[in-house]
Amino acid sequence: FYTSALATAHFLKTQASGCSAYIIGAHGLINALYEVGIPFNDVNPEYVVVGETTGYNYEMIIKATELINKGAKLIGTNGDMTSPSDRGVIPACRALIAPIELATGKKAYFIGKPNPLMMRTGLKKLGVHSEEAVMIGDRMDTDIIGGVESGMETVLVMSGVSNRENIQQFSYQPHYILDRIGDLVPKKAKA
């Protein structure tokens, strides 16, 4: 699995080696940035990086706004507006970034799907060509379009926001539709 947090860490490492970031996100994002040598900085970072988190609050929005107004660049790990959860559909990364964009007048650069940068980097890390890979995802507007635009076969799983009814509104379609990710592997016959 190549996550948007890993792609964000790789992007910042290759774009701005030695940079620092004010990070709004969960442990996966913080760890990914730390692993490539990008330290947390809430005073004068080059970047404000926003990912999905349940610890989001108004003080973080204020701090991010201040830092961006002082020159930090705004990065989003992914462009998902919503995400499925046990509580139903909840705000995701793009929704968390929206108040920061509105307050600063600056637009975030989103690293995750469907950004071709993430798709090409993931293929390179796997050591395969797009014809040899499959994009598996639960969203038509990021996962499946990312795969289609990268020349991969696509598998839509029905565990996310997209469903069999709303996929018909898109001009592109997945190659395969499965109820859940576990359906990728055939079940063993009982002896």
Structure characterization notes:
- The chain has 191 residues and is an alpha/beta fold.
- It has two domains: 4-110, 3-Layer(aba) Sandwich (Rossmann fold); 116-184, HAD superfamily/HAD-like (Rossmann fold, 3-Layer(aba) Sandwich).
- 35% of the residues lie in helices and 18% in strands.
- It contains six helices and nine strands; from the N terminus they run H-E-H-E-H-E-E-E-H-E-H-E-H-E-E.
- Helix 1 packs parallel to helix 2 (27-35) and helix 3 (58-69) packs across helix 4.
- It is globular, with a radius of gyration of 18 Å.
- The model has no long low-confidence stretch (mean pLDDT 92).
Please tag this protein with its features:
191 residues; alpha/beta; Rossmann fold; 4-stranded parallel β-sheet; 6 helices; 9 strands; 35% helix
* Strand-residue proportion: 15-25%
The 3D shape can be described as globular
Q: Can you say what the CATH homologous superfamily of the largest domain is? A: HAD superfamily/HAD-like
Helix content: 25-40%
Supply the number of helical segments.
6
Mean pLDDT: 92
Number of domains: 2
Give the structural class: alpha/beta
CATH class of the largest domain: Alpha Beta
User: How far apart lie the N and C ends?
Assistant: 32 Å
Rg is: 18 Å
Topology:
Layout: H1 4-15, E1 21-24, H2 27-35, E2 47-50, H3 58-69, E3 73-76, E4 82-85, E5 88-91, H4 93-104, E6 109-110, H5 116-126, E7 134-137, H6 140-149, E8 153-157, E9 176-178
Parallel strand pairs: 1-2, 2-3, 3-6, 7-8, 8-9
Antiparallel strand pairs: 4-5
Helix pairs in contact: 1-2, 3-4
